[in-house]
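User: Please fill in residues for this 259-position structure.
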C-alpha cells in the first residue's frame, strides 16, 4: 500500500465516527469546542505513546507506522527535493514518524510541535541521530527560528487540524524562516476527491456538542495554492492523491526576502 493510500488513516481523524462517542477535549464560551487551542488539545491527545501514534497516523502498529513515514519521506525527497547540505524543518513533527527517515538525508533536521509530549517521543525515536533539534511551538508562529535560516520546510497531515487562518499563518511564517530559494511543502485531505468527500460526509454527522477538537477539516487544491501564492511563493506545484492534495513552492531568490 502506497503512502497516499495509507493517508486514509492520517492523523487518526479520518477514522472518527459519530457512533464512537468521541468528545471534545476543551470547552470555550457557551460550551463550544476550542479547536484553536492547539497546544491544549494536542498535549492531551499525546499523553502516552500509544495515544500519540494513534492520533498522528491512525494506528499503533509499528510496521505500518514505519512504512507510512518512509513513504512520506520518499515523496518529499523525490518531488520537493532535500539535499545533504540542507537544514530542514518539520512543522508538527509529532513523534518523528517522517523525521526518522529524513534526518539522515540532510545536514540538520528540526522537529517543531505544540505538544511537549510529542517532542519527548520524537526525541526518543530519533535518539541515534546527532543532527536533530526539537522546538516547542506556541501554536501561532515559528518562534524562535530566525529569518532566512531554513532550506526546506514541510508540514504534512497537520493542516487538517488547523483553522484556515492558522494554516495561512504557518505558510507566512515558513516564508519568513526560509532562505531565498528555500522550499515549502504542505498537504491536506482533498475535499475535491471522492475519498476526501467521504471523510467530509462522515464528519458532518457529528452533532456540534460531540465534534472532536481535532476533527479533520479538508482543503481544496485552490485553497492551498492560494496560501502559498499570497505569501509570496513561486514555482508552485501540486499533486492530487487518492485522499491528499500536496502543494509545494519556492521562496524567490530575490525581492521579498528581508533579513
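Assistant: Residues filled in for all 259 positions:
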Amino acid at each position: 500500500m502506497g503512502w497516499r493510500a495509507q493517508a486514509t488513516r492520517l492523523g487518526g481523524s479520518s477514522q472518527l465516527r459519530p457512533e464512537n462517542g468521541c468528545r471534545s477535549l476543551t470547552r470555550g464560551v457557551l460550551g463550544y469546542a476550542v479547536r484553536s487551542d492547539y497546544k491544549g488539545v494536542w498535549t492531551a491527545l499525546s499523553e502516552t505513546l500509544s495515544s500519540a501514534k494513534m492520533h498522528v497516523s491512525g494506528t499503533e502498529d509499528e510496521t505500518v507506522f514505519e512504512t507510512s513515514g518512509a513513504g512520506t519521506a520518499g515523496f518529499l525527497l523525490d518531488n520537493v527535493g532535500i539535499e545533504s547540505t540542507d537544514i530542514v524543518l518539520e512543522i508538527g513533527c509529532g513523534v518523528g514518524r517522517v523525521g526518522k527517515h529524513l534526518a539522515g538525508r540532510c545536514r540538520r533536521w528540526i522537529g517543531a510541535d505544540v505538544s511537549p509530549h510529542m517532542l519527548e517521543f520524537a526525541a526518543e525515536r530519533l535518539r541515534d541521530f546527532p543532527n536533530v533539534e526539537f522546538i516547542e511551538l506556541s501554536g501561532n508562529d515559528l518562534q524562535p527560528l530566525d529569518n532566512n535560516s531554513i532550506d526546506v520546510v514541510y508540514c504534512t497531515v497537520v493542516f487538517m487540524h488547523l483553522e484556515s487562518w492558522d494554516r495561512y499563518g504557518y505558510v507566512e511564517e515558513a516564508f519568513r524562516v526560509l532562505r531565498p530559494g528555500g522550499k515549502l511543502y504542505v498537504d491536506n485531505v482533498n475535499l475535491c476527491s471522492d475519498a476526501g468527500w467521504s471523510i467530509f460526509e462522515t464528519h458532518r454527522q457529528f452533532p456540534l456538542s460531540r465534534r472532536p477538537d481535532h476533527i479533520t477539516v479538508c482543503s481544496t487544491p485552490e485553497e492551498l495554492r492560494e496560501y502559498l501564492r499570497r505569501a509570496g511563493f513561486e514555482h508552485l506545484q501540486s499533486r492530487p492523491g487518492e485522499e491528499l492534495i500536496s502543494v509545494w513552492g519556492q521562496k524567490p531568490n530575490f525581492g521579498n526576502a528581508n533579513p
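For context: DSSP finds nine helices and seven strands in the chain.
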